[in-house]
Amino acid sequence: MRGPVHVRRRSYLLGVVVTLALLLLSLPASAAGAAGRWSPIDTDRYPGATCFFHTTPDDELHYMSVRAPVIYAIDSTPAIDQQTVGWRFTIQASDDSGTAWKTLLVSSVVKATATDQYNAQWPALARTWGRGPALHNGYRALVTAIWYGPHGAVQGSRTVAVAHYVDYYDGANREHNTYCGDTLG
What we know:
With 185 residues, the protein is mainly beta. The chain has one helix at 2-26; strands at residues 38-39, 49-53, 61-67, 70-71, 82-94, 102-106, 110-115, 126-130, 138-148, 154-161, 165-169, 172-177, 180-181. The protein folds into 2 domains: 1-31; 33-181. The relative contact order is 0.22.
């Protein structure tokens, strides 16, 4: 008799697992974190930001260009879901070699329409920040993806720090870094 009881227990446990999986899949997007699929473009080969230096007259960082992320709508129904999504960047500075960061700028949001099958198409694939007169030891960018509800309220957002930077000066790329330094060298 031990065999049939063991088989019934396995069937019961399998039924519980399947039921729990179906419940999780049927939860509304807000219960799952209110975010769709997204990814910053930020690898060694395709750095998330480029640090632009002028070698004449000062070798200082003058501006930074930040890549737009790939963002899809939240998949909340069996049909193709469509919604407004957006992205922005934040520029932070450090005066202690990257231990503590303070926010210098939060950009405006660029919005577009995406579906759960096709990512948003941005009018420009990068946005630029100019340093201004102040000079800090280092700079980094954060990229924020935003999902909007039907009436324009923010439904969810996710933020990551850019991890790969490349220095650009005199028409050439230099080394890859973990943030933008204040000067070349």
